[in-house]
């Protein structure tokens, strides 16, 4: 089997179009069609249903596309790894994190990690969970930190680590949780936020109907809260520094969380020195949680 023919078939199947594949590969549409026919001749199997108006794979085509996707993802990872070695000629890892972890937690993690591992260079990527998994598969990210996320992929290893607790925070002017009924709730529409918000409403015994939807960053929400424009249910780690400085106030901290941070990476990279050291460090890393111990209602 010619790997060049397989690559053309893969791109056409991925794009579901001969035209789009041709543009991506900088060849003519007829060249795409000819090379795929050569691949079919080599295999003795029809891969694409040519009597269909839309691009449609046969059963054999679907199976070949599934297997070729795995091949080209691995090739992409190899190419990215070789570029890193060529450019830096020493240990370097690409670290990804979700916004909830990347903004408040990752800087402190990297400062502590570099104290004992100054030889390891790193790049940082802050993205959503779906993008991080995609970049892991492509090899542009070596290791990712994220909130709990179900990943059904045998190539990816997931290690659960520290708890991911939530708190209800307000400005310092709020004296009692009953005052929240008249204050807007600043809400990000995430699964974990909704989970803890529902729980908090059950605990306090009334609904929080005044709501403002926030599509911006956690930093935006914290600034609004500091200026008395609302309160929010947020990850504890994202407001730790403000709680410590006294610029935000904990109204309620939830009991021990079942939700965890996840360390995620490709299994075949597990023995890579930089990744091994970083995983070992993360498994032992603990943020100072002295301000999270009091669960009494404020």
Automatic annotation (TrEMBL):
Residues 1-58 form the HTH lysR-type domain. One of its GO terms (molecular function) is DNA-binding transcription factor activity. It comes from the Bacteria. Keywords: DNA-binding, Transcription, Transcription regulation. InterPro entries: LysR_HTH_N (IPR000847), LysR_subst-bd (IPR005119), WH-like_DNA-bd_sf (IPR036388), WH_DNA-bd_sf (IPR036390). The keyword Nucleotide-binding does not apply. Belongs to the LysR transcriptional regulatory family. This is LysR family transcriptional regulator.
């Amino acid at each position: 089997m010619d790997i060049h023919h397989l690559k053309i078939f893969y791109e056409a199947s991925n794009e579901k179009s001969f035209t789009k594949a041709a543009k991506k590969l900088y060849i003519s549409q007829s060249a795409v069609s000819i090379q795929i026919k050569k691949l079919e001749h080599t295999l003795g199997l029809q891969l694409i249903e040519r009597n269909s108006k839309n691009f449609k794979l046969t059963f054999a085509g679907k199976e070949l596309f599934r297997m070729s996707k795995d091949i080209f993802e691995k090739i992409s990872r190899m190419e990215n790894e070789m570029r890193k070695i060529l450019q830096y000629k020493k240990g370097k890892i690409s670290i990804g994190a979700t916004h909830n972890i990347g903004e408040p937690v990752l800087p402190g993690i990297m400062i502590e990690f570099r104290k004992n591992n100054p030889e390891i260079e790193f790049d940082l990527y802050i993205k959503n969970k779906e993008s991080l998994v995609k970049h892991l598969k492509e090899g542009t990210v070596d290791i990712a930190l994220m909130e709990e996320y179900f990943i059904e992929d045998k190539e990816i290893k997931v290690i659960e680590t520290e708890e991911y607790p939530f708190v209800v925070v307000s400005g310092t002017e709020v004296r009692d949780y009953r005052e929240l009924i008249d204050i807007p709730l600043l809400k990000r529409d995430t699964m974990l936020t909704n989970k803890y918000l529902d729980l908090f409403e059950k605990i306090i015994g009334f609904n929080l109907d005044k709501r403002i939807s926030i599509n911006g960053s956690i930093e935006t929400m914290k600034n609004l809260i500091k200026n008395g424009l609302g309160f929010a249910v947020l990850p504890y780690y994202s407001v730790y520094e403000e709680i410590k400085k006294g610029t935000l106030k904990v109204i309620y901290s939830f009991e021990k969380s079942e939700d965890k941070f996840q360390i995620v990476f490709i299994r075949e990279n597990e023995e890579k020195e930089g990744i091994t050291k970083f995983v070992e460090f993360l498994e032992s890393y603990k943020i100072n949680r002295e301000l999270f111990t009091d669960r009494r209602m404020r």
